[in-house]
Amino acid sequence: MILVDGFFRLLDDLPKPVFKYPLHEIAFHKYAFQGMFKNEFEGAVFSNDQARGPPIITGQVILRVLWQAEMGYSKWVNLARDGSHLSTYVFGNRQG
């Protein structure tokens, strides 16, 4: 499951029929990594001394272009989704 979260393989590089749509959407790693990336990069500004392009790169550009993060919702939505995954796992695996 860690292969489909967007850390080892970006979203556009995944094969679409199985890995991208069902597995990528239910992988809890996806929401954990995207929440962490949004927490670190949103609002940040970096100087671009080595690469071609504009002299300043914003964290939004890094999230959208480099990490291909979904920017339609906040990092708190990612946290809520991870919490629901965790509670489903804990309460769904109770015995007795």
UniProtKB/TrEMBL annotation:
Protein name per UniProt: Abc transporter g family member 11
InterPro entries, per database record: Plant_ABCG (IPR052215)
Stated family: Belongs to the ABC transporter superfamily. ABCG family. Eye pigment precursor importer (TC 3.A.1.204) subfamily.
The entry's keywords: Transport
